[in-house]
């Protein structure tokens, strides 16, 4: 298949050389389009030697064949790695001032943007707004990795490893090719909005909980979990892109809530604070997405001073008590009072047990909680938490399954991809029942 590899001017451009080699080894034809400034990092001779194709940065090369239009028209996929903050801003604005940006503007092929920049640039309000807008238009923007950056700094903004990008490239090519080589959209995702189509959640009120909770033990210690907040944040951004007014209740997260006009953020720390926030925010809401990882237990007693080691070496005894079941309470309140979200989506992070598989546990939880949909993640020390890729299974309650008209009613909808794609699949499933 035909791939265009765009390379913008970031130090991570050297990693794109390995990505190019991986795609060439798969047998794809790859045309590399570096920005003029990126040649300060990797020269044209390197790109031509590995791609086996001529390389230029100028729209004035190959004028007779209108090269920027031809490249865009013939591409099955366009990948930009690294995509700098400047490149993201220019693409969002629809600028066409070099061969790469004109090709991006002249294509109907899927576009994968892989950001790489310093942490402060990635978390800035301007970049967050640019990324959200690009995603709402149907472009895929990968989450950057967290790690060592230029110099001594560490944080989010590092280019993902070429092997990780390569996996996503192959997935997108498989989707684009579809059965029998035909083009096919991603199943279970929203189509990119156009000027005539109405966004699927336009005017709806959506509440999203994200991140983990912390239950204080003493002034310096707490009980918590590994939740990064990435899935909840992806849900909030996807719902906003689909036209909803989003209220994000953010617990402890590794990512920053976006500064977007139709997303309001409320920050909490404990399960008790989350419980109060959900009760306030869901009155009159159309959709609740309970993606937060809520601590099941909290210390029964809070020590006003730091718990000290004992001289005799005895271990302290910490008694735990259950936290409220916020999801089940919200479902019960809706049933009893007739108020609350039209559709309630719960989440189950399961490791499985000696007696049951994760899917079996999730089905039991769906019945126990009484929510409309339940999203299952199989989690573990090296699964899901903090990662950009995920695998989910969406289960419907018996009542919703009875409404389904397809032959697979009652069966979970499963997908694997980025957390943004998972968010779109979840919203597509939920939006069908928001009336």
From TrEMBL:
Ranges for domain Flavoprotein: 1-169
Domain DNA/pantothenate metabolism flavoprotein C-terminal: start-end pairs: 202-402
Renumbered residue ranges of the record's region Phosphopantothenoylcysteine decarboxylase: 1-205
Cofactor field: Mg(2+); FMN
Family matches, as SUPFAM superfamilies: CoaB-like, Homo-oligomeric flavin-containing Cys decarboxylases, HFCD
EC number(s) stated in the UniProt entry for this protein: 4.1.1.36, 6.3.2.5
Co-factor binding details: Binds 1 FMN per subunit.
Protein's UniProt keywords contain rRNA-binding: no
GO molecular function, a single term: phosphopantothenate--cysteine ligase activity
InterPro entries: CoaB-like_sf, CoaBC, DNA/pantothenate-metab_flavo_C, Flavin_trans-like, Flavoprotein
Chain spans, region Phosphopantothenate--cysteine ligase: 206-435
Keyword flag ATP-binding: no
Binding site for CTP: 296, 306, 324-327, 347, 365, 369
Pathway the protein contributes to: Cofactor biosynthesis; coenzyme A biosynthesis; CoA from (R)-pantothenate: step 2/5; Cofactor biosynthesis; coenzyme A biosynthesis; CoA from (R)-pantothenate: step 3/5
Catalyzed reactions: N-[(R)-4-phosphopantothenoyl]-L-cysteine + H(+) = (R)-4'-phosphopantetheine + CO2; (R)-4'-phosphopantothenate + L-cysteine + CTP = N-[(R)-4-phosphopantothenoyl]-L-cysteine + CMP + diphosphate + H(+)
Family of this protein: In the N-terminal section; belongs to the HFCD (homo-oligomeric flavin containing Cys decarboxylase) superfamily. In the C-terminal section; belongs to the PPC synthetase family.
Reported function: Catalyzes two sequential steps in the biosynthesis of coenzyme A. In the first step cysteine is conjugated to 4'-phosphopantothenate to form 4-phosphopantothenoylcysteine. In the second step the latter compound is decarboxylated to form 4'-phosphopantotheine.
HAMAP family (alphabetical): CoaBC
Protein name: Coenzyme A biosynthesis bifunctional protein CoaBC
